[in-house]
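> example.struct
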């Protein structure tokens, strides 16, 4: 039997939909506060449910987050209980029986067989339990006796032992953080990532020693910068399904390390930069796995974090990567061109790999939109950007953070292939294929498929289908990513419906259909 708690003022409340609308509009709490001329903590209080925006500021909020004023009023009114489910249940079961907290304390002492217990002290603990601040691990069984309920019904499948779980890295503040840590670890378990008790214990020991000797936070930042660089290399070679699990572990650990960093701290922006890169890599990987919707959430997180970092190169890198993956997710080329234009404006005066990313993405989107001449002009601009990049960037072929000439040749191949220029596509493809490292298992396949696309675009269906089939059928299932498979499908796009009845074309379509069924990448929730 349950009831809705009757004292909402005492609850931990949150305007979740209001916060989601703010994020969807591209604002962080900090940037929205700056736009409105208020403090970040004011926006945080609005979203936390402890205060409401004043009437005079509401029209400006509605304009910023792109909703009507009526919709904004609904968002402000939509305040939900943000406590753990077991905490809500404890209060509900007590109130439905008409018991005060003092009566609850008396009943718990009776159920435990304790006479003369300190009612006042236990009353304070009950308040903290019902607020979700602490978990009643020593009183769990007693609660079930007092309420006459089964443990599963009252507490759900949460921390059945009642003991504080061993975690990746002990936190200094209370059990509410223990709850978040447990939820993060459960998320890893849902991905099939197990952390053994021995591994947990060793990590606890290591983190304790680290707090003693690694007093300089700069050392920790340098370590995580190196971790991000290593992921940049691993992305190129590892199958996405394996890479996503390794990356998830580091994202969880990073979250636990940084959750209490003050936004005014001198190192806050550096942590934002590292977090945005790792989130961007997660967006890239989920996109490769065909998880487009999930990828977009990660791209939004990466972009917001990069904006908070105020580092222009990182902001451009995230936007450029998001733009390029949008091509393979079949997003509107006109929308992508608009995003590219905004990013190019942001990058004025900043020659870097991120700007080259944006420029190549814009060239590819332009040719898809049928603006071939504009695409050629953008290629010329990209060539100029490339010539101005430092040598350590243009000679790096093994990492997503490098921008070697192979990237330029890739884009040139794309533009010429979509234009049906077989000779140009072949020349550019050969130049790119000479540069890719042996560890890159996917990009060379994409370049070869573009060469096949050039054939079908020019009307040579036999050569295009024959080459595409020979390329795609030998690609291991684990490397048939969204980018690879999308290009394989694009080979069919120029072929008329009548020509689709040809036996070789039908056989190729069957190969793609069979592949989609057998190698579908899905992360189960």
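> example.seq
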């Amino acid at each position: 039997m349950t009831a809705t708690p009757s004292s909402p003022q005492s609850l931990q409340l949150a305007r979740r939909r209001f916060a989601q609308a703010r994020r969807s509009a591209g604002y962080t709490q900090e940037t929205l506060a700056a736009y409105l001329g208020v403090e970040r903590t004011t926006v945080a209080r609005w979203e936390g449910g402890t205060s409401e925006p004043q009437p005079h500021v509401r029209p400006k909020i509605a304009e910023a987050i792109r909703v009507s004023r009526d919709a904004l009023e609904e968002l402000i009114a939509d305040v939900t209980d943000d406590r753990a489910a077991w905490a809500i249940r404890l209060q509900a079961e007590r109130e439905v029986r008409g018991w005060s907290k003092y009566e609850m304390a008396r009943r718990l002492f009776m159920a435990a067989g304790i006479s003369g217990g300190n009612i006042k002290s236990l009353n304070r603990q009950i308040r903290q339990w019902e607020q979700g601040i602490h978990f009643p691990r020593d009183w769990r069984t007693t609660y079930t006796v007092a309420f006459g309920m089964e443990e599963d019904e009252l507490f759900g499948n949460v921390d059945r032992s009642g003991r504080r779980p061993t975690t990746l890295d002990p936190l200094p503040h209370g059990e509410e953080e223990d709850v978040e840590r447990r939820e993060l670890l459960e998320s890893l378990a849902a991905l099939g990532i197990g952390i053994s008790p021995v591994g947990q214990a060793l990590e606890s020991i290591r983190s304790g020693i680290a707090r003693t000797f690694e007093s300089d936070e700069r050392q920790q930042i340098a370590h995580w910068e190196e971790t991000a660089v290593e992921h940049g290399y691993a992305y190129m070679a590892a199958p996405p399904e394996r890479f996503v699990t390794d990356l998830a572990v580091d994202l969880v650990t990073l979250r636990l390390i940084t959750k209490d960093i003050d936004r005014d701290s001198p190192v806050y922006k550096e942590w934002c930069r590292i977090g945005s890169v790792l989130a961007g890599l997660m967006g890239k990987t989920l996109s490769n796995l065909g998880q487009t919707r999930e990828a977009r959430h990660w791209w939004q997180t990466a972009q917001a974090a990069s904006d908070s970092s105020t580092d222009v190169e990182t902001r451009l890198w995230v936007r450029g990567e998001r733009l390029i993956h949008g091509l393979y997710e079949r997003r509107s080329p006109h929308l992508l061109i608009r995003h590219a234009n905004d990013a190019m404006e942001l990058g004025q005066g900043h020659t870097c790999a991120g700007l080259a990313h944006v420029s190549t993405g814009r060239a590819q989107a332009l040719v898809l939109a049928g603006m071939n001449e504009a695409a050629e002009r953008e290629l010329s601009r990209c060539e100029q950007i490339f010539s101005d990049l430092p040598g350590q960037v243009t000679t790096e072929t093994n990492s997503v953070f490098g921008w070697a000439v192979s990237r330029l040749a890739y884009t040139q191949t794309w533009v010429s292939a979509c234009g049906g220029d077989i000779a140009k596509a072949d020349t550019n493809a050969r130049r790119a294929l000479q540069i890719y490292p042996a560890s890159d298992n996917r990009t060379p396949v994409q370049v070869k498929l573009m060469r096949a696309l050039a054939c079908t675009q020019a009307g040579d269906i036999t050569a295009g289908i024959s080459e595409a089939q020979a390329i795609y059928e030998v690609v291991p299932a684990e490397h048939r990513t969204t980018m690879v498979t999308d290009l394989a499908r694009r080979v069919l796009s120029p072929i008329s419906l009548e020509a689709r009845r040809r036996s070789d074309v039908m056989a190729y379509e069957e190969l793609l259909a069979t592949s989609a069924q057998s190698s579908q990448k899905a992360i189960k929730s």
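> remarks
Strands lie at 13-14, 80-81.
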